[in-house]
Protein backbone atom coordinates (compact mmCIF):
# COMPACT_ATOMS: atom_id res chain seq x y z
CA UNK A 1 0.00 0.00 0.00
CA UNK A 2 2.73 2.38 1.02
CA UNK A 3 4.80 1.17 -1.88
CA UNK A 4 1.95 1.92 -4.24
CA UNK A 5 1.59 5.47 -2.89
CA UNK A 6 5.28 6.12 -3.24
CA UNK A 7 5.27 4.82 -6.80
CA UNK A 8 2.24 6.95 -7.61
CA UNK A 9 3.97 9.99 -6.21
CA UNK A 10 7.13 9.21 -8.18
CA UNK A 11 5.09 8.83 -11.37
CA UNK A 12 3.40 12.17 -10.78
CA UNK A 13 6.76 13.76 -10.11
CA UNK A 14 8.01 12.38 -13.42
CA UNK A 15 4.98 13.77 -15.23
CA UNK A 16 5.51 17.12 -13.57
CA UNK A 17 9.14 17.04 -14.67
CA UNK A 18 8.06 16.33 -18.25
CA UNK A 19 5.60 19.22 -18.29
CA UNK A 20 8.24 21.52 -16.86
CA UNK A 21 10.55 20.39 -19.68
CA UNK A 22 7.82 21.09 -22.21
CA UNK A 23 7.13 24.47 -20.69
CA UNK A 24 10.84 25.22 -20.85
CA UNK A 25 11.09 24.40 -24.56
CA UNK A 26 7.94 26.44 -25.14
CA UNK A 27 9.43 29.47 -23.42
CA UNK A 28 12.70 28.94 -25.29
CA UNK A 29 10.82 28.89 -28.56
CA UNK A 30 8.99 32.05 -27.58
CA UNK A 31 12.24 33.78 -26.76
CA UNK A 32 13.73 32.67 -30.07
CA UNK A 33 10.69 33.91 -31.95
CA UNK A 34 10.73 37.25 -30.22
CA UNK A 35 14.41 37.62 -31.13
CA UNK A 36 13.54 36.97 -34.75
CA UNK A 37 10.71 39.47 -34.61
CA UNK A 38 12.96 42.05 -33.07
CA UNK A 39 15.55 41.43 -35.75
CA UNK A 40 12.93 41.74 -38.46
CA UNK A 41 11.64 44.94 -36.92
CA UNK A 42 15.17 46.26 -36.66
CA UNK A 43 15.84 45.49 -40.30
CA UNK A 44 12.65 47.22 -41.35
CA UNK A 45 13.43 50.43 -39.52
CA UNK A 46 17.14 51.09 -39.68
CA UNK A 47 19.31 48.51 -41.45
CA UNK A 48 17.41 48.03 -44.70
CA UNK A 49 16.51 51.57 -45.84
CA UNK A 50 19.86 52.56 -47.30
CA UNK A 51 20.01 49.44 -49.45
CA UNK A 52 16.36 49.90 -50.26
CA UNK A 53 16.83 53.52 -51.36
CA UNK A 54 20.03 52.63 -53.18
CA UNK A 55 18.16 49.93 -55.11
CA UNK A 56 15.52 52.44 -56.17
CA UNK A 57 18.25 54.91 -57.12
CA UNK A 58 20.07 52.38 -59.30
CA UNK A 59 16.82 51.27 -60.96
CA UNK A 60 15.88 54.90 -61.61
CA UNK A 61 19.29 55.46 -63.27
CA UNK A 62 18.50 52.64 -65.69
CA UNK A 63 14.98 53.94 -66.31
CA UNK A 64 16.47 57.40 -66.92
CA UNK A 65 19.01 55.96 -69.35
CA UNK A 66 16.37 54.32 -71.53
CA UNK A 67 13.81 57.11 -71.29
CA UNK A 68 16.33 59.82 -72.19
CA UNK A 69 17.65 57.92 -75.21
CA UNK A 70 14.07 57.78 -76.49
CA UNK A 71 13.82 61.59 -76.41
CA UNK A 72 14.00 63.00 -79.93
CA UNK A 73 17.05 65.20 -80.53
CA UNK A 74 14.77 68.04 -81.62
CA UNK A 75 13.54 68.26 -78.04
CA UNK A 76 16.88 68.20 -76.23
CA UNK A 77 16.62 71.82 -75.11
CA UNK A 78 13.13 71.32 -73.60
CA UNK A 79 14.51 68.12 -72.04
CA UNK A 80 17.16 70.15 -70.25
CA UNK A 81 14.72 72.78 -69.05
CA UNK A 82 12.21 70.21 -67.81
CA UNK A 83 14.84 68.10 -66.03
CA UNK A 84 15.90 71.37 -64.45
CA UNK A 85 12.36 72.01 -63.28
CA UNK A 86 11.86 68.53 -61.83
CA UNK A 87 15.20 68.52 -60.03
CA UNK A 88 13.76 71.40 -58.01
CA UNK A 89 11.70 68.77 -56.19
CA UNK A 90 14.48 69.45 -53.68
CA UNK A 91 11.94 72.06 -52.54
CA UNK A 92 10.54 69.22 -50.40
CA UNK A 93 13.64 69.46 -48.20
CA UNK A 94 13.34 73.22 -47.97
CA UNK A 95 9.68 72.99 -46.87
CA UNK A 96 10.56 70.39 -44.21
CA UNK A 97 13.40 72.59 -42.95
CA UNK A 98 10.96 75.46 -42.44
CA UNK A 99 7.95 73.50 -41.17
CA UNK A 100 9.76 71.29 -38.65
CA UNK A 101 12.64 73.63 -37.90
CA UNK A 102 14.16 73.59 -34.45
CA UNK A 103 16.54 76.50 -35.03
CA UNK A 104 16.27 79.89 -36.68
CA UNK A 105 19.34 79.11 -38.80
CA UNK A 106 17.58 76.12 -40.37
CA UNK A 107 14.51 78.27 -41.05
CA UNK A 108 16.61 80.86 -42.88
CA UNK A 109 18.49 78.27 -44.93
CA UNK A 110 15.22 76.54 -45.68
CA UNK A 111 13.61 79.78 -46.82
CA UNK A 112 16.46 80.69 -49.17
CA UNK A 113 16.39 77.16 -50.59
CA UNK A 114 12.62 77.39 -50.98
CA UNK A 115 12.74 80.65 -52.97
CA UNK A 116 15.56 79.38 -55.24
CA UNK A 117 13.82 76.08 -55.92
CA UNK A 118 10.52 77.83 -56.47
CA UNK A 119 12.02 80.16 -59.12
CA UNK A 120 13.25 77.02 -60.82
CA UNK A 121 9.97 75.12 -60.60
CA UNK A 122 7.85 77.90 -62.07
CA UNK A 123 10.50 79.24 -64.46
CA UNK A 124 11.47 75.76 -65.64
CA UNK A 125 8.00 74.40 -66.31
CA UNK A 126 6.72 77.62 -67.88
CA UNK A 127 9.65 78.13 -70.21
CA UNK A 128 9.37 74.47 -71.26
CA UNK A 129 5.70 75.01 -71.93
CA UNK A 130 6.52 78.09 -74.01
CA UNK A 131 9.09 76.19 -76.07
CA UNK A 132 6.90 73.13 -76.62
CA UNK A 133 3.98 75.26 -77.78
CA UNK A 134 6.16 76.41 -80.71
CA UNK A 135 6.68 72.91 -82.12
CA UNK A 136 4.16 72.68 -84.91
CA UNK A 137 3.27 70.22 -87.60
CA UNK A 138 3.34 71.02 -91.29
CA UNK A 139 -0.08 72.39 -92.16
CA UNK B 1 -0.31 61.76 -42.42
CA UNK B 2 1.18 58.33 -42.02
CA UNK B 3 4.78 58.03 -43.05
CA UNK B 4 4.07 55.12 -45.39
CA UNK B 5 1.39 57.10 -47.19
CA UNK B 6 3.77 60.01 -47.73
CA UNK B 7 6.37 57.59 -49.10
CA UNK B 8 3.77 56.26 -51.50
CA UNK B 9 2.81 59.76 -52.66
CA UNK B 10 6.47 60.61 -53.30
CA UNK B 11 6.79 57.43 -55.34
CA UNK B 12 3.79 58.54 -57.42
CA UNK B 13 5.37 61.90 -58.13
CA UNK B 14 8.64 60.17 -59.07
CA UNK B 15 6.76 58.03 -61.58
CA UNK B 16 4.99 61.10 -62.98
CA UNK B 17 8.42 62.69 -63.56
CA UNK B 18 9.50 59.60 -65.52
CA UNK B 19 6.35 59.94 -67.64
CA UNK B 20 7.11 63.64 -68.16
CA UNK B 21 10.43 62.76 -69.78
CA UNK B 22 8.81 59.91 -71.69
CA UNK B 23 6.42 62.45 -73.26
CA UNK B 24 9.36 64.22 -74.87
CA UNK B 25 9.91 61.30 -77.25
CA UNK B 26 7.72 63.13 -79.78
CA UNK B 27 6.66 66.78 -80.14
CA UNK B 28 2.98 65.76 -80.26
CA UNK B 29 3.07 64.17 -76.80
CA UNK B 30 5.54 66.61 -75.28
CA UNK B 31 3.08 69.15 -73.91
CA UNK B 32 1.13 66.46 -72.08
CA UNK B 33 4.44 65.28 -70.67
CA UNK B 34 5.19 68.71 -69.30
CA UNK B 35 1.78 68.84 -67.58
CA UNK B 36 2.48 65.42 -66.06
CA UNK B 37 5.68 66.85 -64.60
CA UNK B 38 3.78 69.79 -63.12
CA UNK B 39 1.27 67.44 -61.49
CA UNK B 40 4.13 65.38 -60.05
CA UNK B 41 5.64 68.51 -58.55
CA UNK B 42 2.27 69.57 -57.14
CA UNK B 43 1.81 66.16 -55.48
CA UNK B 44 5.30 66.31 -53.95
CA UNK B 45 4.73 69.79 -52.48
CA UNK B 46 1.22 69.05 -51.16
CA UNK B 47 2.32 65.75 -49.63
CA UNK B 48 5.14 67.50 -47.80
CA UNK B 49 2.78 70.16 -46.47
CA UNK B 50 0.23 67.61 -45.26
CA UNK B 51 2.90 65.35 -43.78
CA UNK B 52 4.82 68.07 -41.96
CA UNK B 53 1.74 69.98 -40.68
CA UNK B 54 3.50 73.37 -40.40
CA UNK B 55 2.40 75.90 -37.82
CA UNK B 56 0.51 78.92 -39.14
CA UNK B 57 3.64 81.07 -39.07
CA UNK B 58 5.67 78.48 -40.97
CA UNK B 59 2.88 78.02 -43.49
CA UNK B 60 2.83 81.76 -44.18
CA UNK B 61 6.59 81.66 -44.68
CA UNK B 62 6.33 78.69 -47.07
CA UNK B 63 3.56 80.24 -49.14
CA UNK B 64 5.50 83.52 -49.25
CA UNK B 65 8.66 81.76 -50.44
CA UNK B 66 6.76 79.85 -53.13
CA UNK B 67 5.02 83.04 -54.27
CA UNK B 68 8.25 85.05 -54.54
CA UNK B 69 9.78 82.23 -56.60
CA UNK B 70 6.66 81.90 -58.72
CA UNK B 71 6.62 85.58 -59.68
CA UNK B 72 10.34 85.71 -60.51
CA UNK B 73 10.18 82.40 -62.38
CA UNK B 74 7.09 83.32 -64.39
CA UNK B 75 8.50 86.71 -65.44
CA UNK B 76 11.80 85.16 -66.54
CA UNK B 77 10.05 82.35 -68.43
CA UNK B 78 7.89 84.83 -70.31
CA UNK B 79 10.56 87.39 -71.14
CA UNK B 80 13.59 85.30 -72.03
CA UNK B 81 14.46 85.32 -75.76
CA UNK B 82 14.96 81.84 -77.21
CA UNK B 83 18.51 82.69 -78.25
CA UNK B 84 19.30 83.07 -74.54
CA UNK B 85 18.05 79.62 -73.53
CA UNK B 86 21.57 78.24 -72.84
CA UNK B 87 22.29 81.05 -70.37
CA UNK B 88 18.90 80.60 -68.72
CA UNK B 89 19.38 76.86 -68.29
CA UNK B 90 22.85 77.46 -66.84
CA UNK B 91 21.41 80.02 -64.43
CA UNK B 92 18.67 77.59 -63.39
CA UNK B 93 21.28 74.89 -62.74
CA UNK B 94 23.08 77.25 -60.40
CA UNK B 95 19.83 77.72 -58.44
CA UNK B 96 19.36 73.98 -58.00
CA UNK B 97 22.96 73.71 -56.81
CA UNK B 98 22.58 76.47 -54.24
CA UNK B 99 19.19 75.12 -53.12
CA UNK B 100 20.86 71.75 -52.45
CA UNK B 101 23.48 73.49 -50.28
CA UNK B 102 20.74 75.37 -48.40
CA UNK B 103 18.66 72.25 -47.75
CA UNK B 104 21.74 70.40 -46.49
CA UNK B 105 22.53 73.33 -44.18
CA UNK B 106 18.93 73.26 -42.96
CA UNK B 107 19.28 69.53 -42.22
CA UNK B 108 22.52 70.14 -40.34
CA UNK B 109 21.05 72.83 -38.09
CA UNK B 110 17.69 71.13 -37.59
CA UNK B 111 18.24 67.38 -38.09
CA UNK B 112 15.09 66.40 -36.20
CA UNK B 113 13.03 67.89 -39.03
CA UNK B 114 14.46 65.21 -41.32
CA UNK B 115 14.38 62.29 -38.85
CA UNK B 116 18.15 61.93 -38.87
CA UNK B 117 18.85 62.47 -35.18
CA UNK B 118 19.63 65.55 -33.11
CA UNK B 119 22.23 68.29 -33.30
CA UNK B 120 25.54 66.73 -32.28
CA UNK B 121 24.31 63.17 -32.79
CA UNK B 122 23.30 62.97 -36.45
CA UNK B 123 23.74 59.47 -37.91
CA UNK B 124 27.08 59.09 -39.72
CA UNK B 125 25.34 57.75 -42.81
CA UNK B 126 23.20 60.88 -43.05
CA UNK B 127 26.28 63.08 -42.61
CA UNK B 128 28.07 61.35 -45.48
CA UNK B 129 25.04 61.62 -47.79
CA UNK B 130 24.58 65.23 -46.81
CA UNK B 131 28.20 66.13 -47.53
CA UNK B 132 28.10 64.44 -50.95
CA UNK B 133 24.97 66.42 -51.81
CA UNK B 134 26.42 69.67 -50.54
CA UNK B 135 29.77 69.25 -52.34
CA UNK B 136 28.16 68.50 -55.71
CA UNK B 137 25.60 71.25 -55.12
CA UNK B 138 28.28 73.85 -54.44
CA UNK B 139 30.32 72.80 -57.50
CA UNK B 140 27.15 73.01 -59.62
CA UNK B 141 26.40 76.46 -58.22
CA UNK B 142 29.66 78.25 -59.05
CA UNK B 143 30.32 76.16 -62.17
CA UNK B 144 26.94 77.15 -63.58
CA UNK B 145 27.52 80.81 -62.75
CA UNK B 146 30.76 80.75 -64.75
CA UNK B 147 29.01 78.92 -67.61
CA UNK B 148 26.22 81.51 -67.48
CA UNK B 149 28.74 84.41 -67.61
CA UNK B 150 30.56 82.86 -70.56
CA UNK B 151 27.39 82.10 -72.52
CA UNK B 152 25.92 85.50 -71.77
CA UNK B 153 29.04 87.30 -72.96
CA UNK B 154 29.68 88.79 -69.51
CA UNK B 155 32.94 86.93 -69.52
CA UNK B 156 35.25 86.09 -72.41
CA UNK B 157 34.64 82.68 -73.98
CA UNK B 158 38.40 82.21 -74.07
CA UNK B 159 39.69 79.45 -71.86
CA UNK B 160 41.37 80.88 -68.76
CA UNK B 161 44.29 78.57 -68.15
CA UNK B 162 45.90 78.96 -64.74
CA UNK B 163 49.39 77.58 -64.25
CA UNK B 164 49.40 74.32 -62.28
CA UNK B 165 45.60 74.27 -62.47
CA UNK B 166 45.43 70.46 -62.46
CA UNK B 167 47.44 70.39 -59.23
CA UNK B 168 45.27 73.09 -57.68
CA UNK B 169 42.14 71.13 -58.64
CA UNK B 170 43.52 67.87 -57.30
CA UNK B 171 44.52 69.67 -54.08
CA UNK B 172 41.03 71.11 -53.69
CA UNK B 173 39.48 67.72 -54.45
CA UNK B 174 41.60 66.05 -51.77
CA UNK B 175 40.70 68.85 -49.35
CA UNK B 176 36.99 68.26 -49.96
CA UNK B 177 37.41 64.53 -49.24
CA UNK B 178 39.35 65.27 -46.03
CA UNK B 179 36.69 67.75 -44.86
CA UNK B 180 33.96 65.21 -45.64
CA UNK B 181 35.71 62.61 -43.47
CA UNK B 182 36.23 65.09 -40.62
CA UNK B 183 32.61 66.20 -40.92
CA UNK B 184 31.25 62.65 -40.92
CA UNK B 185 33.24 61.75 -37.80
CA UNK B 186 32.85 64.96 -35.76
CA UNK B 187 29.71 66.63 -37.21
CA UNK B 188 31.69 69.87 -36.97
CA UNK B 189 29.81 72.78 -38.51
CA UNK B 190 33.14 74.36 -39.44
CA UNK B 191 34.02 71.25 -41.48
CA UNK B 192 30.65 71.51 -43.23
CA UNK B 193 31.26 75.10 -44.30
CA UNK B 194 34.83 74.23 -45.33
CA UNK B 195 33.36 71.57 -47.67
CA UNK B 196 31.10 74.28 -49.09
CA UNK B 197 33.93 76.80 -49.61
CA UNK B 198 36.34 74.30 -51.16
CA UNK B 199 33.61 72.99 -53.48
CA UNK B 200 32.61 76.51 -54.53
CA UNK B 201 36.23 77.21 -55.48
CA UNK B 202 36.47 73.89 -57.30
CA UNK B 203 33.35 74.73 -59.33
CA UNK B 204 34.94 77.96 -60.58
CA UNK B 205 38.29 76.36 -61.38
CA UNK B 206 36.72 73.42 -63.22
CA UNK B 207 34.79 75.61 -65.66
CA UNK B 208 37.05 78.64 -66.35
CA UNK B 209 39.56 76.70 -68.48
CA UNK B 210 36.83 75.37 -70.79
CA UNK B 211 36.49 77.36 -74.01
CA UNK B 212 33.30 78.72 -75.54
CA UNK B 213 33.17 76.01 -78.21
CA UNK B 214 32.78 73.32 -75.57
CA UNK B 215 29.95 75.08 -73.72
CA UNK B 216 27.24 72.65 -74.94
CA UNK B 217 29.09 69.88 -73.11
CA UNK B 218 29.52 72.02 -70.01
CA UNK B 219 25.82 72.92 -69.82
CA UNK B 220 24.85 69.24 -70.17
CA UNK B 221 27.44 68.22 -67.59
CA UNK B 222 26.16 70.75 -65.06
CA UNK B 223 22.64 69.47 -65.76
CA UNK B 224 23.90 66.07 -64.73
CA UNK B 225 25.62 67.41 -61.59
CA UNK B 226 22.45 69.17 -60.43
CA UNK B 227 20.73 65.78 -60.62
CA UNK B 228 23.39 63.99 -58.57
CA UNK B 229 23.26 66.77 -55.97
CA UNK B 230 19.48 66.34 -55.69
CA UNK B 231 19.89 62.57 -55.34
CA UNK B 232 22.48 63.03 -52.57
CA UNK B 233 20.05 65.18 -50.60
CA UNK B 234 17.31 62.65 -51.42
CA UNK B 235 19.25 59.96 -49.55
CA UNK B 236 19.59 62.21 -46.51
CA UNK B 237 15.88 62.91 -46.56
CA UNK B 238 15.03 59.30 -47.53
CA UNK B 239 12.69 60.82 -50.09
CA UNK B 240 11.74 58.71 -53.11
CA UNK B 241 10.70 61.64 -55.32
CA UNK B 242 14.12 63.25 -54.88
CA UNK B 243 16.08 60.02 -55.36
CA UNK B 244 14.20 59.06 -58.53
CA UNK B 245 14.38 62.59 -59.94
CA UNK B 246 18.07 62.90 -59.11
CA UNK B 247 18.79 59.66 -60.94
CA UNK B 248 16.71 60.73 -63.96
CA UNK B 249 18.30 64.17 -64.24
CA UNK B 250 21.77 62.83 -63.57
CA UNK B 251 21.56 60.24 -66.33
CA UNK B 252 19.84 62.67 -68.69
CA UNK B 253 22.66 65.20 -68.37
CA UNK B 254 25.28 62.48 -68.74
CA UNK B 255 23.69 61.21 -71.96
CA UNK B 256 23.43 64.73 -73.41
CA UNK B 257 27.12 65.36 -72.57
CA UNK B 258 27.97 62.13 -74.38
CA UNK B 259 25.93 63.12 -77.47
CA UNK B 260 27.59 66.57 -77.54
CA UNK B 261 31.08 65.09 -77.20
CA UNK B 262 30.33 62.68 -80.03
CA UNK B 263 28.98 65.55 -82.16
CA UNK B 264 32.32 67.31 -81.79
CA UNK B 265 34.44 64.16 -81.80
CA UNK B 266 35.99 65.25 -78.51
CA UNK B 267 36.55 62.99 -75.56
CA UNK B 268 34.78 63.96 -72.36
CA UNK B 269 38.10 64.00 -70.51
CA UNK B 270 39.68 66.43 -72.97
CA UNK B 271 36.69 68.76 -72.62
CA UNK B 272 36.98 68.66 -68.83
CA UNK B 273 40.70 69.33 -68.96
CA UNK B 274 39.88 72.41 -71.01
CA UNK B 275 42.01 74.87 -72.89
CA UNK B 276 40.38 74.26 -76.28
CA UNK B 277 38.60 76.83 -78.47
CA UNK B 278 37.73 80.40 -77.74
CA UNK B 279 37.32 83.61 -79.64
CA UNK B 280 37.93 83.16 -83.34
CA UNK B 281 40.96 84.67 -84.97
CA UNK B 282 40.15 86.11 -88.35
CA UNK B 283 42.66 85.98 -91.16
CA UNK B 284 42.79 89.23 -93.10
CA UNK B 285 42.54 89.45 -96.88
CA UNK B 286 46.34 89.43 -97.11
CA UNK B 287 46.53 85.93 -95.67
CA UNK B 288 44.59 84.53 -98.58
CA UNK B 289 47.65 84.26 -100.83
CA UNK B 290 46.73 83.22 -104.35
CA UNK B 291 43.49 81.54 -103.32
CA UNK B 292 40.43 83.25 -104.72
CA UNK B 293 36.92 83.41 -103.47
CA UNK B 294 33.83 83.57 -105.64
CA UNK B 295 31.52 86.19 -104.30
CA UNK B 296 27.84 86.40 -105.19
CA UNK B 297 24.95 88.76 -104.63
CA UNK B 298 21.48 88.21 -103.19
CA UNK B 299 20.10 88.13 -106.74
CA UNK B 300 22.49 85.34 -107.70
CA UNK B 301 21.44 83.33 -104.66
CA UNK B 302 17.75 83.89 -105.37
CA UNK B 303 18.19 82.80 -108.99
CA UNK B 304 20.06 79.64 -108.01
CA UNK B 305 17.56 78.58 -105.39
CA UNK B 306 14.48 79.38 -107.44
CA UNK B 307 15.67 77.08 -110.20
CA UNK B 308 16.68 74.27 -107.86
CA UNK B 309 14.74 71.08 -107.20
CA UNK B 310 16.03 70.65 -103.70
CA UNK B 311 17.67 73.07 -101.27
CA UNK B 312 19.14 72.00 -97.94
CA UNK B 313 19.72 74.68 -95.36
CA UNK B 314 22.49 74.24 -92.78
CA UNK B 315 21.92 76.80 -90.02
CA UNK B 316 24.45 77.66 -87.34
CA UNK B 317 24.65 79.86 -84.31
CA UNK B 318 25.50 82.88 -86.50
CA UNK B 319 21.96 82.73 -87.83
CA UNK B 320 20.58 82.99 -84.31
CA UNK B 321 22.89 85.87 -83.41
CA UNK B 322 21.72 87.79 -86.46
CA UNK B 323 18.10 86.89 -85.61
CA UNK B 324 17.70 85.68 -89.19
CA UNK B 325 15.55 82.60 -88.45
CA UNK B 326 12.24 84.41 -89.03
CA UNK B 327 13.14 85.87 -92.40
CA UNK B 328 14.78 82.55 -93.32
CA UNK B 329 11.49 80.78 -92.65
CA UNK B 330 9.81 83.37 -94.91
CA UNK B 331 12.34 82.65 -97.65
CA UNK B 332 11.60 78.94 -97.36
CA UNK B 333 7.86 79.42 -97.72
CA UNK B 334 8.40 81.52 -100.88
CA UNK B 335 10.65 78.80 -102.30
CA UNK B 336 8.15 76.09 -101.42
CA UNK B 337 5.40 77.98 -103.22
CA UNK B 338 7.45 77.84 -106.39
CA UNK B 339 7.83 74.09 -106.01
CA UNK B 340 11.28 73.77 -104.48
CA UNK B 341 11.81 71.06 -101.85
CA UNK B 342 13.49 72.62 -98.82
CA UNK B 343 14.93 70.81 -95.83
CA UNK B 344 16.87 71.91 -92.79
CA UNK B 345 19.87 69.85 -91.68
CA UNK B 346 20.79 70.26 -88.02
CA UNK B 347 24.25 69.37 -86.80
CA UNK B 348 24.23 67.87 -83.27
CA UNK B 349 26.20 70.80 -81.85
CA UNK B 350 24.56 73.61 -83.85
CA UNK B 351 23.80 76.38 -81.39
CA UNK B 352 25.06 76.64 -77.84
CA UNK B 353 23.27 73.71 -76.19
CA UNK B 354 21.73 70.39 -77.22
CA UNK B 355 18.72 70.94 -79.49
CA UNK B 356 19.09 74.72 -79.39
CA UNK B 357 18.78 75.17 -83.17
CA UNK B 358 15.53 73.19 -83.24
CA UNK B 359 13.97 75.53 -80.70
CA UNK B 360 15.07 78.59 -82.65
CA UNK B 361 13.58 77.22 -85.87
CA UNK B 362 10.40 76.20 -84.08
CA UNK B 363 10.10 79.74 -82.79
CA UNK B 364 10.29 80.98 -86.39
CA UNK B 365 7.31 78.74 -87.24
CA UNK B 366 9.34 76.17 -89.13
CA UNK B 367 7.30 72.92 -89.02
CA UNK B 368 9.24 70.25 -87.16
CA UNK B 369 8.86 67.72 -89.96
CA UNK B 370 10.99 69.94 -92.25
CA UNK B 371 13.85 69.77 -89.77
CA UNK B 372 16.18 66.78 -89.98
CA UNK B 373 19.08 65.45 -88.02
CA UNK B 374 22.27 65.80 -90.00
CA UNK B 375 22.94 62.05 -90.23
CA UNK B 376 19.49 61.50 -91.74
CA UNK B 377 19.97 63.89 -94.67
CA UNK B 378 23.73 63.90 -95.09
CA UNK B 379 23.58 61.43 -97.99
CA UNK B 380 21.04 63.63 -99.79
CA UNK B 381 23.49 66.44 -100.51
CA UNK B 382 24.59 64.51 -103.63
CA UNK B 383 21.14 64.96 -105.17
CA UNK B 384 20.81 68.51 -103.93
CA UNK B 385 21.16 71.53 -106.15
CA UNK B 386 21.87 74.14 -103.52
CA UNK B 387 23.27 73.78 -100.01
CA UNK B 388 22.64 77.01 -98.14
CA UNK B 389 24.96 77.44 -95.16
CA UNK B 390 23.87 80.27 -92.92
CA UNK B 391 25.92 81.30 -89.90
CA UNK B 392 27.66 77.93 -89.63
CA UNK B 393 31.29 77.20 -90.34
CA UNK B 394 33.19 74.46 -88.50
CA UNK B 395 30.39 71.95 -89.04
CA UNK B 396 30.98 72.16 -92.81
CA UNK B 397 34.78 72.17 -92.76
CA UNK B 398 36.06 69.31 -94.95
CA UNK B 399 39.30 69.21 -92.97
CA UNK B 400 37.33 67.29 -90.32
CA UNK B 401 37.05 64.56 -92.96
CA UNK B 402 40.41 64.70 -94.75
CA UNK B 403 43.05 66.44 -92.65
CA UNK B 404 44.35 64.22 -89.88
CA UNK B 405 46.30 67.14 -88.41
CA UNK B 406 43.19 69.28 -88.01
CA UNK B 407 42.00 69.80 -84.43
CA UNK B 408 38.47 68.93 -85.52
CA UNK B 409 39.49 65.79 -87.46
CA UNK B 410 36.86 63.09 -87.08
CA UNK B 411 34.02 65.43 -86.21
CA UNK B 412 30.89 64.58 -88.23
CA UNK B 413 30.30 67.37 -90.76
CA UNK B 414 27.59 68.36 -93.23
CA UNK B 415 28.72 67.21 -96.70
CA UNK B 416 27.68 70.48 -98.30
CA UNK B 417 30.47 70.16 -100.87
CA UNK B 418 28.51 67.24 -102.42
CA UNK B 419 25.76 69.63 -103.54
CA UNK B 420 25.89 71.18 -107.02
CA UNK B 421 26.34 74.65 -105.52
CA UNK B 422 27.17 75.67 -102.02
CA UNK B 423 26.00 79.09 -100.87
CA UNK B 424 27.89 80.35 -97.85
CA UNK B 425 26.29 83.25 -96.01
CA UNK B 426 28.82 84.77 -93.66
CA UNK B 427 29.99 88.09 -92.33
CA UNK B 428 33.60 87.61 -93.42
CA UNK B 429 36.13 84.92 -94.17
CA UNK B 430 36.96 84.53 -90.51
CA UNK B 431 37.42 81.08 -89.10
CA UNK B 432 34.92 79.47 -86.75
CA UNK B 433 34.94 78.81 -83.02
CA UNK B 434 37.66 76.22 -83.33
CA UNK B 435 39.87 78.80 -85.07
CA UNK B 436 40.49 76.75 -88.21
CA UNK B 437 40.45 78.02 -91.78
CA UNK B 438 37.72 76.48 -93.95
CA UNK B 439 38.98 75.30 -97.37
CA UNK B 440 35.41 75.17 -98.62
CA UNK B 441 35.41 78.96 -99.10
CA UNK B 442 37.91 78.67 -101.95
CA UNK B 443 36.25 75.87 -103.92
CA UNK B 444 34.85 76.48 -107.41
CA UNK B 445 31.29 75.52 -106.65
CA UNK B 446 31.17 77.62 -103.52
CA UNK B 447 29.63 81.06 -103.70
CA UNK B 448 30.20 83.37 -100.77
CA UNK B 449 27.50 85.84 -99.76
CA UNK B 450 29.12 88.38 -97.47
CA UNK B 451 26.99 90.35 -95.06
CA UNK B 452 24.69 90.25 -92.10
CA UNK B 453 22.58 87.08 -92.28
CA UNK B 454 19.28 88.85 -91.71
CA UNK B 455 19.92 91.64 -94.28
CA UNK B 456 21.11 89.21 -96.89
CA UNK B 457 18.18 86.82 -96.51
CA UNK B 458 15.78 89.80 -96.64
CA UNK B 459 17.36 90.83 -99.94
CA UNK B 460 17.06 87.27 -101.24
CA UNK B 461 13.37 87.19 -100.31
CA UNK B 462 12.83 90.52 -102.09
CA UNK B 463 14.51 89.30 -105.23
CA UNK B 464 12.61 85.97 -105.12
CA UNK B 465 9.31 87.80 -104.96
CA UNK B 466 10.09 89.98 -107.95
From TrEMBL, chain A:
It is found in: Cell inner membrane. It catalyses: NAD(+) + NADPH + H(+)(in) = NADH + NADP(+) + H(+)(out). It is an enzyme of class 7 (translocase). InterPro entries: NADP_transhyd_a_C (IPR024605). It comes from the Bacteria. The chain crosses the membrane at residues 50-69, 81-100, 106-128. Its main location: membrane. The keyword Nucleotide-binding does not apply. It is a multi-pass membrane protein. Keywords: Cell inner membrane, Cell membrane, Membrane, NAD, NADP, Translocase, Transmembrane, Transmembrane helix. Its EC number is 7.1.1.1. The keyword NADP applies. It holds the Pfam family PNTB_4TM. Residues 54-137 form the NAD(P) transhydrogenase alpha subunit C-terminal domain. The transhydrogenation between NADH and NADP is coupled to respiration and ATP hydrolysis and functions as a proton pump across the membrane. PANTHER family: NAD(P) TRANSHYDROGENASE, PROTON-TRANSLOCATING NAD(P)(+) TRANSHYDROGENASE. This is proton-translocating NAD(P)(+) transhydrogenase.
UniProtKB/TrEMBL annotation, chain B:
It is a multi-pass membrane protein. Signal peptide: none annotated. Pfam families: PNTB (PF02233). It catalyses: NAD(+) + NADPH + H(+)(in) = NADH + NADP(+) + H(+)(out). It comes from the Bacteria. Coiled coil: none annotated. Residues 7-462 form the NADP transhydrogenase beta-like domain. It is found in: Cell inner membrane. Keywords: Cell inner membrane, Cell membrane, Membrane, NAD, NADP, Translocase, Transmembrane, Transmembrane helix. It is an enzyme of class 7 (translocase). Its EC number is 7.1.1.1. The chain crosses the membrane at residues 6-24, 36-53, 59-77, 89-112, 124-146, 167-185, 191-210. The transhydrogenation between NADH and NADP is coupled to respiration and ATP hydrolysis and functions as a proton pump across the membrane. Belongs to the PNT beta subunit family. This is NAD(P) transhydrogenase subunit beta. The lineage of its organism: Bacteria, Pseudomonadati, Pseudomonadota, Alphaproteobacteria, Hyphomicrobiales.
